[in-house]
Amino acid sequence: MTEPNAPEPSCLDDTEPDFISMEDARQTIFAAAPPRGRHHYVPLADALNRVLARDFLATLDVPRRDNSAMDGWAVNTQGQGAPANSRFREIGVALAGQPFEGQVGPGEAVRITTGAWVPAGADTIVIHERAGFADGTVTSFDAAEPGQNLRRAGEDVRAGEVLIAAGTRLMPAHLGLLGSVGTSEVLVTRPPRVAYFSTGNEVRTAGESLEAGAIFDSNRHTVAAMLRRLGIEVLDLGVVVDEPEAMQRAFGQAREAAEVIITSGGVSVGEADFIKPTLRGLGEARFWKVAVRPGRPFTFGLLGETLFFGLPGNPVAVMVMFYGLVQPSLRHLAGEPYRAPVQVSAVCRSRLRKRPGRTEYQRGILSRTADGGLEVEKTGMQGSGILSSMAAADCFIVLEEDDATVEPGQRVTVQPFFGLV
Protein backbone atom coordinates (compact mmCIF):
# COMPACT_ATOMS: atom_id res chain seq x y z
CA MET A 1 0.00 0.00 0.00
CA THR A 2 1.32 3.45 -0.92
CA GLU A 3 1.97 5.80 1.97
CA PRO A 4 -0.37 8.85 1.99
CA ASN A 5 2.49 11.30 1.52
CA ALA A 6 4.63 9.13 -0.74
CA PRO A 7 5.83 10.95 -3.87
CA GLU A 8 4.47 9.99 -7.28
CA PRO A 9 6.89 8.11 -9.55
CA SER A 10 8.78 10.50 -11.83
CA CYS A 11 11.01 10.50 -14.90
CA LEU A 12 13.98 10.86 -12.56
CA ASP A 13 13.37 7.44 -11.01
CA ASP A 14 15.68 4.74 -12.35
CA THR A 15 13.26 1.91 -11.61
CA GLU A 16 9.50 1.62 -11.06
CA PRO A 17 7.26 -1.41 -10.42
CA ASP A 18 5.28 -0.89 -13.64
CA PHE A 19 8.23 -0.30 -15.96
CA ILE A 20 8.24 -2.46 -19.10
CA SER A 21 11.42 -3.19 -21.07
CA MET A 22 11.82 -2.06 -24.66
CA GLU A 23 11.73 -5.67 -25.90
CA ASP A 24 8.63 -6.55 -23.86
CA ALA A 25 6.96 -3.37 -25.11
CA ARG A 26 7.72 -4.31 -28.70
CA GLN A 27 6.33 -7.82 -28.30
CA THR A 28 3.20 -6.47 -26.59
CA ILE A 29 2.54 -4.18 -29.56
CA PHE A 30 3.19 -6.92 -32.12
CA ALA A 31 0.77 -9.26 -30.36
CA ALA A 32 -1.94 -6.60 -30.23
CA ALA A 33 -1.43 -5.44 -33.81
CA PRO A 34 -0.96 -8.30 -36.32
CA PRO A 35 -0.29 -7.48 -39.98
CA ARG A 36 -3.40 -6.07 -41.65
CA GLY A 37 -3.04 -8.06 -44.90
CA ARG A 38 -4.27 -5.25 -47.17
CA HIS A 39 -2.55 -4.96 -50.52
CA HIS A 40 -2.77 -3.53 -54.03
CA TYR A 41 -0.80 -3.36 -57.27
CA VAL A 42 1.46 -0.40 -58.00
CA PRO A 43 3.62 0.36 -61.04
CA LEU A 44 7.19 -0.80 -60.60
CA ALA A 45 8.37 2.81 -60.73
CA ASP A 46 6.26 3.56 -57.63
CA ALA A 47 7.24 0.47 -55.63
CA LEU A 48 10.37 1.85 -53.94
CA ASN A 49 10.21 1.44 -50.15
CA ARG A 50 6.95 -0.53 -50.33
CA VAL A 51 6.57 -3.99 -48.80
CA LEU A 52 6.05 -6.98 -51.11
CA ALA A 53 2.70 -8.65 -50.35
CA ARG A 54 3.50 -12.17 -51.59
CA ASP A 55 6.46 -14.16 -52.87
CA PHE A 56 7.43 -13.05 -56.36
CA LEU A 57 8.28 -15.97 -58.68
CA ALA A 58 10.67 -15.41 -61.56
CA THR A 59 9.06 -15.86 -64.97
CA LEU A 60 12.28 -16.43 -66.95
CA ASP A 61 15.97 -17.14 -66.62
CA VAL A 62 18.38 -14.23 -66.24
CA PRO A 63 20.50 -14.27 -68.31
CA ARG A 64 18.25 -16.01 -70.85
CA ARG A 65 21.26 -17.47 -72.69
CA ASP A 66 24.99 -17.83 -72.09
CA ASN A 67 26.54 -14.45 -72.89
CA SER A 68 29.91 -12.79 -72.87
CA ALA A 69 31.19 -10.97 -69.79
CA MET A 70 33.86 -9.16 -71.82
CA ASP A 71 34.63 -7.75 -75.26
CA GLY A 72 36.77 -10.16 -77.27
CA TRP A 73 36.31 -13.37 -79.26
CA ALA A 74 34.12 -16.40 -78.63
CA VAL A 75 36.22 -19.42 -79.57
CA ASN A 76 35.76 -23.17 -79.86
CA THR A 77 38.37 -25.18 -77.96
CA GLN A 78 36.27 -28.38 -78.05
CA GLY A 79 35.91 -28.10 -74.29
CA GLN A 80 39.62 -28.72 -73.78
CA GLY A 81 40.95 -25.20 -73.46
CA ALA A 82 43.91 -24.00 -75.48
CA PRO A 83 47.56 -23.16 -74.70
CA ALA A 84 49.01 -19.67 -74.95
CA ASN A 85 49.52 -18.33 -78.50
CA SER A 86 46.75 -20.50 -79.93
CA ARG A 87 45.31 -19.18 -83.17
CA PHE A 88 41.66 -19.03 -84.29
CA ARG A 89 40.09 -17.98 -87.57
CA GLU A 90 37.48 -15.23 -87.26
CA ILE A 91 34.22 -16.14 -89.01
CA GLY A 92 31.77 -13.46 -87.87
CA VAL A 93 30.58 -10.95 -85.30
CA ALA A 94 28.14 -11.22 -82.35
CA LEU A 95 26.80 -7.98 -80.87
CA ALA A 96 24.57 -7.39 -77.85
CA GLY A 97 21.07 -7.69 -79.28
CA GLN A 98 22.36 -9.05 -82.61
CA PRO A 99 23.37 -12.70 -82.17
CA PHE A 100 25.64 -14.62 -84.57
CA GLU A 101 23.36 -17.26 -86.07
CA GLY A 102 25.96 -19.70 -87.31
CA GLN A 103 27.99 -22.48 -85.69
CA VAL A 104 31.53 -21.96 -84.40
CA GLY A 105 33.70 -24.93 -85.31
CA PRO A 106 36.99 -26.10 -83.79
CA GLY A 107 39.73 -23.47 -84.21
CA GLU A 108 37.19 -20.79 -85.14
CA ALA A 109 36.30 -17.52 -83.44
CA VAL A 110 33.51 -14.92 -83.52
CA ARG A 111 34.22 -11.35 -82.49
CA ILE A 112 31.88 -10.62 -79.55
CA THR A 113 30.85 -7.68 -77.37
CA THR A 114 29.90 -7.66 -73.68
CA GLY A 115 26.38 -9.02 -73.19
CA ALA A 116 26.14 -10.66 -76.61
CA TRP A 117 24.86 -14.25 -76.74
CA VAL A 118 27.64 -16.82 -77.04
CA PRO A 119 27.32 -18.50 -80.47
CA ALA A 120 26.66 -22.23 -80.73
CA GLY A 121 29.90 -24.21 -80.57
CA ALA A 122 31.92 -21.57 -78.70
CA ASP A 123 33.04 -22.57 -75.20
CA THR A 124 35.19 -19.70 -73.96
CA ILE A 125 35.92 -16.00 -74.44
CA VAL A 126 39.37 -14.66 -75.26
CA ILE A 127 39.34 -11.04 -74.09
CA HIS A 128 40.31 -8.23 -76.43
CA GLU A 129 43.15 -6.94 -74.24
CA ARG A 130 44.91 -10.35 -74.19
CA ALA A 131 44.70 -11.17 -77.90
CA GLY A 132 46.09 -10.04 -81.23
CA PHE A 133 44.28 -9.87 -84.55
CA ALA A 134 45.75 -9.80 -88.04
CA ASP A 135 44.70 -11.11 -91.43
CA GLY A 136 41.49 -12.64 -90.09
CA THR A 137 43.27 -14.61 -87.39
CA VAL A 138 42.97 -14.19 -83.60
CA THR A 139 45.96 -15.09 -81.41
CA SER A 140 45.33 -15.69 -77.70
CA PHE A 141 48.34 -14.49 -75.71
CA ASP A 142 47.28 -16.49 -72.65
CA ALA A 143 46.11 -20.03 -72.16
CA ALA A 144 42.33 -20.26 -72.66
CA GLU A 145 40.31 -22.16 -70.07
CA PRO A 146 36.89 -23.62 -70.94
CA GLY A 147 34.07 -21.37 -69.75
CA GLN A 148 36.20 -18.34 -68.92
CA ASN A 149 34.56 -14.90 -69.19
CA LEU A 150 31.12 -16.44 -69.75
CA ARG A 151 27.89 -15.58 -67.93
CA ARG A 152 25.82 -18.76 -67.81
CA ALA A 153 22.09 -18.81 -68.55
CA GLY A 154 20.13 -18.57 -65.29
CA GLU A 155 23.16 -17.86 -63.11
CA ASP A 156 21.42 -14.75 -61.71
CA VAL A 157 17.77 -15.85 -61.76
CA ARG A 158 16.11 -19.21 -62.48
CA ALA A 159 12.56 -19.27 -63.84
CA GLY A 160 10.12 -20.46 -61.19
CA GLU A 161 12.28 -19.67 -58.16
CA VAL A 162 11.31 -17.18 -55.47
CA LEU A 163 12.92 -14.01 -56.74
CA ILE A 164 11.94 -11.85 -53.74
CA ALA A 165 10.20 -13.10 -50.58
CA ALA A 166 6.98 -11.65 -49.22
CA GLY A 167 7.58 -9.05 -46.52
CA THR A 168 10.63 -7.59 -48.25
CA ARG A 169 10.85 -3.81 -48.26
CA LEU A 170 11.71 -3.02 -51.88
CA MET A 171 14.99 -1.18 -52.35
CA PRO A 172 16.66 -0.06 -55.61
CA ALA A 173 18.31 -3.45 -56.24
CA HIS A 174 14.95 -5.19 -55.84
CA LEU A 175 13.36 -2.92 -58.43
CA GLY A 176 16.19 -3.65 -60.83
CA LEU A 177 15.78 -7.38 -60.23
CA LEU A 178 12.04 -7.18 -60.90
CA GLY A 179 12.72 -5.16 -64.02
CA SER A 180 15.17 -7.81 -65.25
CA VAL A 181 12.30 -10.32 -65.59
CA GLY A 182 10.00 -7.85 -67.33
CA THR A 183 7.82 -6.81 -64.38
CA SER A 184 5.68 -3.72 -64.92
CA GLU A 185 3.68 -3.76 -61.67
CA VAL A 186 4.00 -5.44 -58.29
CA LEU A 187 1.65 -6.43 -55.46
CA VAL A 188 2.54 -4.55 -52.28
CA THR A 189 0.92 -4.10 -48.87
CA ARG A 190 -1.04 -0.95 -48.15
CA PRO A 191 0.80 1.03 -45.47
CA PRO A 192 -1.36 2.09 -42.54
CA ARG A 193 -2.73 5.61 -42.66
CA VAL A 194 -1.37 7.56 -39.70
CA ALA A 195 -2.91 10.62 -38.03
CA TYR A 196 -0.54 12.71 -35.96
CA PHE A 197 -0.81 15.75 -33.73
CA SER A 198 1.28 17.59 -31.17
CA THR A 199 -0.13 18.65 -27.83
CA GLY A 200 0.54 21.57 -25.53
CA ASN A 201 -0.74 25.05 -24.77
CA GLU A 202 2.77 26.39 -25.28
CA VAL A 203 3.33 24.85 -28.74
CA ARG A 204 3.13 27.13 -31.77
CA THR A 205 3.24 26.46 -35.52
CA ALA A 206 5.76 28.33 -37.66
CA GLY A 207 4.34 31.72 -38.65
CA GLU A 208 2.43 32.20 -35.41
CA SER A 209 3.57 34.72 -32.82
CA LEU A 210 5.86 33.40 -30.12
CA GLU A 211 4.71 35.00 -26.89
CA ALA A 212 6.37 34.54 -23.51
CA GLY A 213 6.68 30.85 -22.58
CA ALA A 214 5.75 29.58 -26.04
CA ILE A 215 7.87 27.35 -28.27
CA PHE A 216 7.77 26.42 -31.95
CA ASP A 217 6.70 22.86 -32.77
CA SER A 218 9.63 20.69 -33.82
CA ASN A 219 8.10 17.29 -33.11
CA ARG A 220 5.52 17.41 -35.92
CA HIS A 221 8.26 17.96 -38.48
CA THR A 222 10.41 15.17 -37.04
CA VAL A 223 7.61 12.62 -36.77
CA ALA A 224 6.18 13.42 -40.21
CA ALA A 225 9.63 13.02 -41.78
CA MET A 226 10.25 9.67 -40.04
CA LEU A 227 6.84 8.44 -41.22
CA ARG A 228 7.35 9.58 -44.81
CA ARG A 229 10.67 7.75 -44.99
CA LEU A 230 8.61 4.59 -44.38
CA GLY A 231 6.33 5.46 -47.32
CA ILE A 232 3.40 6.14 -45.00
CA GLU A 233 0.57 8.56 -45.68
CA VAL A 234 0.44 11.14 -42.90
CA LEU A 235 -2.61 13.11 -41.79
CA ASP A 236 -1.32 16.16 -39.92
CA LEU A 237 -3.88 17.37 -37.36
CA GLY A 238 -1.71 20.22 -36.13
CA VAL A 239 -1.37 21.26 -32.52
CA VAL A 240 -4.07 20.37 -29.97
CA VAL A 241 -4.33 22.44 -26.81
CA ASP A 242 -4.32 20.83 -23.38
CA GLU A 243 -8.06 20.83 -22.79
CA PRO A 244 -10.22 17.70 -22.38
CA GLU A 245 -12.78 18.74 -25.01
CA ALA A 246 -10.13 19.59 -27.60
CA MET A 247 -8.37 16.29 -26.94
CA GLN A 248 -11.64 14.36 -27.32
CA ARG A 249 -12.33 16.04 -30.68
CA ALA A 250 -8.81 15.35 -31.96
CA PHE A 251 -8.98 11.68 -30.99
CA GLY A 252 -12.39 11.33 -32.61
CA GLN A 253 -11.23 12.94 -35.86
CA ALA A 254 -8.06 10.86 -35.94
CA ARG A 255 -9.91 7.63 -35.21
CA GLU A 256 -12.32 8.23 -38.09
CA ALA A 257 -9.57 9.03 -40.58
CA ALA A 258 -6.69 6.69 -39.74
CA GLU A 259 -5.62 3.24 -38.59
CA VAL A 260 -2.88 4.58 -36.33
CA ILE A 261 -2.80 7.66 -34.10
CA ILE A 262 0.47 9.19 -32.94
CA THR A 263 0.79 12.10 -30.55
CA SER A 264 3.70 13.83 -28.84
CA GLY A 265 3.49 15.28 -25.36
CA GLY A 266 0.77 14.99 -22.75
CA VAL A 267 1.51 11.40 -21.67
CA SER A 268 3.18 12.18 -18.36
CA VAL A 269 1.59 12.99 -14.98
CA GLY A 270 1.32 16.78 -15.14
CA GLU A 271 -1.88 18.67 -14.40
CA ALA A 272 -2.35 19.46 -18.12
CA ASP A 273 -1.54 15.98 -19.46
CA PHE A 274 -4.84 14.72 -20.86
CA ILE A 275 -3.74 11.96 -23.26
CA LYS A 276 -4.11 9.05 -20.82
CA PRO A 277 -7.52 9.99 -19.41
CA THR A 278 -8.81 10.60 -22.94
CA LEU A 279 -7.48 7.24 -24.08
CA ARG A 280 -9.06 5.48 -21.12
CA GLY A 281 -12.41 7.03 -22.00
CA LEU A 282 -12.27 5.93 -25.64
CA GLY A 283 -10.31 2.69 -25.47
CA GLU A 284 -7.58 1.09 -23.39
CA ALA A 285 -3.92 1.65 -22.55
CA ARG A 286 -1.70 -1.45 -22.60
CA PHE A 287 1.35 0.21 -21.02
CA TRP A 288 2.61 3.74 -20.38
CA LYS A 289 6.10 3.52 -18.91
CA VAL A 290 9.14 2.01 -20.64
CA ALA A 291 12.46 1.39 -18.88
CA VAL A 292 14.33 3.69 -21.25
CA ARG A 293 16.08 7.03 -21.03
CA PRO A 294 15.12 9.24 -22.77
CA GLY A 295 11.55 8.12 -23.42
CA ARG A 296 10.10 6.75 -20.18
CA PRO A 297 6.60 8.30 -20.61
CA PHE A 298 5.42 6.36 -23.66
CA THR A 299 1.88 5.06 -24.05
CA PHE A 300 0.57 2.29 -26.27
CA GLY A 301 -3.14 1.61 -26.48
CA LEU A 302 -6.10 0.61 -28.61
CA LEU A 303 -9.24 2.44 -29.66
CA GLY A 304 -11.09 -0.54 -31.11
CA GLU A 305 -8.86 -1.56 -34.04
CA THR A 306 -7.06 1.79 -34.13
CA LEU A 307 -3.57 1.75 -32.62
CA PHE A 308 -2.38 4.60 -30.44
CA PHE A 309 1.22 5.61 -29.77
CA GLY A 310 1.72 8.40 -27.27
CA LEU A 311 5.24 9.74 -27.65
CA PRO A 312 6.93 11.88 -25.00
CA GLY A 313 7.15 15.64 -25.49
CA ASN A 314 10.92 16.09 -25.45
CA PRO A 315 12.25 15.97 -29.02
CA VAL A 316 15.12 13.50 -28.51
CA ALA A 317 12.82 11.17 -26.58
CA VAL A 318 10.37 11.38 -29.50
CA MET A 319 12.99 10.07 -31.91
CA VAL A 320 14.37 7.40 -29.57
CA MET A 321 10.91 5.94 -28.95
CA PHE A 322 9.80 6.26 -32.57
CA TYR A 323 12.81 4.30 -33.79
CA GLY A 324 12.64 1.82 -30.94
CA LEU A 325 8.91 1.04 -30.92
CA VAL A 326 6.77 2.93 -33.45
CA GLN A 327 8.81 2.24 -36.57
CA PRO A 328 9.10 -1.54 -35.96
CA SER A 329 5.37 -1.66 -35.21
CA LEU A 330 4.39 0.12 -38.43
CA ARG A 331 6.66 -2.21 -40.38
CA HIS A 332 5.07 -5.18 -38.61
CA LEU A 333 1.60 -3.94 -39.60
CA ALA A 334 2.75 -3.90 -43.23
CA GLY A 335 3.90 -7.53 -43.01
CA GLU A 336 7.61 -6.85 -42.77
CA PRO A 337 9.48 -9.28 -40.49
CA TYR A 338 11.19 -7.68 -37.51
CA ARG A 339 14.96 -7.49 -37.67
CA ALA A 340 16.88 -6.33 -34.64
CA PRO A 341 18.96 -3.22 -35.35
CA VAL A 342 22.60 -3.74 -36.26
CA GLN A 343 24.85 -3.07 -33.28
CA VAL A 344 28.65 -2.98 -33.10
CA SER A 345 31.24 -2.64 -30.36
CA ALA A 346 33.41 0.47 -30.19
CA VAL A 347 35.85 2.17 -27.83
CA CYS A 348 34.22 5.16 -26.14
CA ARG A 349 36.26 8.38 -26.13
CA SER A 350 33.88 10.30 -23.84
CA ARG A 351 32.77 10.00 -20.26
CA LEU A 352 29.11 8.96 -20.23
CA ARG A 353 27.12 9.54 -17.06
CA LYS A 354 24.70 6.68 -16.37
CA ARG A 355 22.85 5.20 -13.39
CA PRO A 356 21.74 1.56 -13.41
CA GLY A 357 18.03 0.89 -13.86
CA ARG A 358 17.10 1.84 -17.42
CA THR A 359 18.46 1.25 -20.91
CA GLU A 360 19.89 4.53 -22.11
CA TYR A 361 20.33 5.83 -25.65
CA GLN A 362 23.01 8.49 -25.84
CA ARG A 363 23.90 10.14 -29.12
CA GLY A 364 27.32 9.72 -30.69
CA ILE A 365 29.59 9.99 -33.70
CA LEU A 366 31.14 6.72 -34.87
CA SER A 367 34.49 6.71 -36.64
CA ARG A 368 37.26 4.33 -37.68
CA THR A 369 40.70 4.49 -36.10
CA ALA A 370 44.00 4.32 -37.98
CA ASP A 371 44.38 0.64 -37.08
CA GLY A 372 40.89 -0.21 -38.41
CA GLY A 373 39.01 -0.29 -35.10
CA LEU A 374 35.86 1.62 -34.21
CA GLU A 375 35.56 4.47 -31.73
CA VAL A 376 32.69 6.67 -30.66
CA GLU A 377 32.29 9.96 -28.86
CA LYS A 378 29.16 11.64 -27.56
CA THR A 379 27.66 14.66 -29.31
CA GLY A 380 27.83 17.14 -26.47
CA MET A 381 25.06 17.49 -23.90
CA GLN A 382 22.70 14.51 -23.77
CA GLY A 383 19.49 15.96 -22.36
CA SER A 384 16.23 14.71 -23.88
CA GLY A 385 15.36 18.22 -25.01
CA ILE A 386 18.61 18.84 -26.90
CA LEU A 387 17.66 17.99 -30.48
CA SER A 388 21.00 19.26 -31.77
CA SER A 389 22.56 16.16 -30.17
CA MET A 390 20.55 14.05 -32.64
CA ALA A 391 21.23 16.28 -35.62
CA ALA A 392 24.99 16.00 -35.01
CA ALA A 393 24.94 12.24 -34.37
CA ASP A 394 25.20 9.21 -36.65
CA CYS A 395 24.56 6.55 -34.00
CA PHE A 396 23.09 5.69 -30.62
CA ILE A 397 25.40 4.63 -27.82
CA VAL A 398 23.31 1.93 -26.13
CA LEU A 399 23.90 1.54 -22.40
CA GLU A 400 22.04 -1.42 -20.92
CA GLU A 401 19.95 -1.38 -17.72
CA ASP A 402 22.72 -2.64 -15.44
CA ASP A 403 25.44 -0.39 -16.91
CA ALA A 404 26.84 2.48 -14.85
CA THR A 405 28.95 5.49 -15.84
CA VAL A 406 31.30 4.79 -18.75
CA GLU A 407 34.87 6.11 -18.60
CA PRO A 408 36.96 6.95 -21.70
CA GLY A 409 38.62 3.85 -23.10
CA GLN A 410 35.81 1.45 -22.19
CA ARG A 411 34.01 -0.48 -24.90
CA VAL A 412 30.34 0.28 -25.54
CA THR A 413 27.56 -0.96 -27.82
CA VAL A 414 26.76 1.31 -30.76
CA GLN A 415 23.69 1.27 -33.00
CA PRO A 416 24.41 3.12 -36.28
CA PHE A 417 21.60 5.20 -37.71
CA PHE A 418 21.93 3.64 -41.18
CA GLY A 419 19.71 0.77 -40.03
CA LEU A 420 16.84 3.08 -39.17
CA VAL A 421 15.83 3.97 -42.75
According to DSSP, the number of beta strands is 26
Helix share of residues?
10-25%
Could you list the spans in which at least 5 consecutive residues all have pLDDT below 50?
Answer: none
Task: Please state how the strands of the largest beta sheet are arranged side by side.
Answer: 7-4-6-5-9-8
- Inertia-based shape: elongated
Gyration radius (Cα, Å) is: 30 Å
Alpha-carbon distance between the two ends: 46 Å
Major sheet: size, sense and barrel closure? Answer: 6 strands, mixed
Figure out the total of helices: 7
Query: Mean pLDDT, rounded to whole units?
Result: 91
What class do helices, strands and sheet pairing give? alpha/beta
Strand content: 25-35%
Describe the structure.
Helix content is 18%, strand content 29%. The chain has a six-stranded mixed sheet with strand order 7-4-6-5-9-8, with no helix packed on it. A six-stranded mixed sheet has the order 16-13-17-21-20-18, with helices on both faces. It has seven helices and 26 strands. With 421 residues, it is of the alpha/beta class. The chain starts with 21 loop residues before the first helix and ends in a 5-residue tail after the last strand. Helix 1 packs across helix 6 and helix 3 runs parallel beside helix 6. 38% of the residues are buried. Strand 20 and strand 21 form a beta hairpin.
